[in-house]
C-alpha cells in the first residue's frame, strides 16, 4: 500500500471555515453534474444513459465517499506551496488513489468518479497552493496552477511506445487525443475560454441557471475530444456526437423548458448510435466548480 502524504493540520494555514467552504463547493459540483437532466449518454435523474452498470444512487454514494478527501487535497496543496510545482503531482497521486479506493468501496467496484477525482484533486490542491501563496483564487489562477502540476504529463504517459498500449496511448497515437491529462496540462482551456464565458453570458441574459448549464454542456460536447467516445465509436463516433451538439446550438440551444425535448431526442440517438458509455463528466465537473462560485 502506498504511503499517503501527510497534510497540514495547522488551522492557521487555511481557516477551517474556508477549507470546508471550498471542499463543499467541489462536492456540490459533483452532485449538480450528476443531477443535471437530461444529459445525452450520461447518468442523470431520469435514467442511466448508456451506463448499464451504474445508477444515480451510485454517484451519490460515490460523491459522499469522496467528500472527505476534498479538504485533504486542499491541505496538501497548501502544505507543499513552497515546493516546485513539478513535484506536487508525485505527492498528490497517493491521496488520489486512496480516494479512489474509498469510491470503489462505496460503489461495490463501479467507477463513477475516477476522472473527477483526478481533476478535482488537482483543482483543490491548486486552491490550497494559491491560498498559501496569498494569490487571488480565481478560475484562471486555479487552472493555470493545476497545469503547472501536470507539466510533461502527456509526454511521459501518452507518448511511450509500450508493447501493450493503454487506451489513452492508443488514442493519442491514432487520433492525437490527449484526454484528461492533456486538458489538465493545458489549464482546462475548454472550461476557461469557452464554457465559463458561455455560461456567464447566458446568466447575464436572464437564462434559467439549470437550462444554462445544459446549454453549456452542449457546448462542451461540441468541442471536447472525448476519449471515451473515441475509444468506443472511433473518430466517426466522436465527430457524430460533436456535430449533433453543434447542430442543437446553432438551432438556438436550450433556451426554455420546451427545448428540453431536443435533448431527449439527442439522448435517444446517442443510446442507439453509441450503446457503450461515454463521459463528459470530467469537464462538466470542472465547469461546475467555477460556474457555481465564480459566475458573477
Summarize the structure in words.
It is built from 14 helices and no strands. By secondary structure, it is mainly α. The protein has a domain of 195 residues. Belongs to the CitG/MdcB family. It holds the Pfam family CitG. It comes from Citrobacter koseri (Citrobacter diversus).
The fraction of residues assigned to DSSP E strands is: under 5%
Number of helices: 14
Major pleated sheet: none
Distance between the termini: 44 Å
N-to-C order of helices and strands: HHHHHHHHHHHHHH
> What does the average pLDDT come to?
85
Extended strand count: 0
How would you sum up the global shape?
Answer: globular
Q: Percent range for helical residues?
A: 55-70%
- Radius of gyration using CA atoms only: 19 Å
Structural class determined from secondary elements: mainly alpha
Uncertain runs: 6-12
How are the secondary structure elements laid out?
Blueprint: H1 16-35, H2 56-67, H3 70-79, H4 88-106, H5 114-132, H6 139-149, H7 153-158, H8 167-175, H9 179-185, H10 189-204, H11 209-223, H12 227-250, H13 260-273, H14 281-291
Offer a quick outline of the entry:
This protein is mainly α. It has helices at residues 16-35, 56-67, 70-79, 88-106, 114-132, 139-149, 153-158, 167-175, 179-185, 189-204, 209-223, 227-250, 260-273, 281-291.
Tags for this entry?
296 residues; mainly alpha; Probable 2-(5''-triphosphoribosyl)-3'-dephosphocoenzyme-A synthase; ATP binding; ATP-binding
Amino acid at each position: 500500500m502506498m504511503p499517503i502524504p501527510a497534510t497540514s493540520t495547522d488551522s492557521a494555514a487555511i481557516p477551517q471555515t474556508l477549507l470546508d467552504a471550498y471542499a463543499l463547493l467541489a462536492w456540490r459540483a459533483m452532485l449538480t453534474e450528476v443531477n443535471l437532466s437530461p444529459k445525452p449518454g450520461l447518468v442523470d435523474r431520469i435514467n442511466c444513459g448508456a451506463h448499464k452498470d451504474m445508477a444515480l444512487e451510485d454517484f451519490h454514494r460515490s460523491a459522499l465517499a469522496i467528500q472527505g478527501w476534498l479538504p485533504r487535497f486542499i491541505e496538501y496543496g497548501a502544505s507543499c506551496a513552497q515546493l516546485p510545482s513539478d513535484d506536487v503531482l508525485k505527492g498528490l497521486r497517493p491521496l488520489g488513489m486512496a480516494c479512489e479506493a474509498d469510491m470503489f468501496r462505496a460503489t461495490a467496484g463501479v467507477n463513477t468518479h475516477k476522472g473527477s477525482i483526478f481533476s478535482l484533486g488537482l483543482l483543490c490542491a491548486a486552491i490550497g497552493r494559491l491560498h498559501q501563496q496569498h494569490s487571488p483564487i480565481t478560475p484562471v489562477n486555479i487552472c493555470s496552477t493545476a497545469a503547472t502540476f501536470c507539466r510533461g504529463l502527456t509526454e511521459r504517459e501518452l507518448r511511450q511506445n509500450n508493447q501493450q498500449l493503454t487506451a489513452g496511448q492508443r488514442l493519442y497515437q491514432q487520433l492525437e487525443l490527449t484526454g484528461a491529462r492533456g486538458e489538465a496540462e493545458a489549464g482546462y482551456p475548454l472550461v476557461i475560454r469557452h464554457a465559463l464565458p458561455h455560461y456567464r453570458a447566458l446568466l447575464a441574459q436572464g437564462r434559467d441557471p439549470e437550462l444554462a448549464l445544459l446549454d453549456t454542456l452542449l457546448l462542451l460536447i461540441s468541442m471536447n475530444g472525448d476519449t471515451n467516445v473515441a475509444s468506443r465509436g472511433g473518430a466517426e463516433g466522436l465527430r457524430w456526437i460533436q456535430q449533433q451538439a453543434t447542430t442543437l446550438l446553432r438551432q438556438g440551444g436550450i433556451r426554455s423548458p420546451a427545448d428540453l425535448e431536443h435533448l431527449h431526442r439527442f439522448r435517444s440517438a446517442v443510446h442507439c448510435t453509441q450503446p457503450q458509455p461515454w463521459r463528459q463528466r470530467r469537464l462538466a465537473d470542472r465547469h461546475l466548480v467555477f460556474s457555481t462560485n465564480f459566475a458573477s
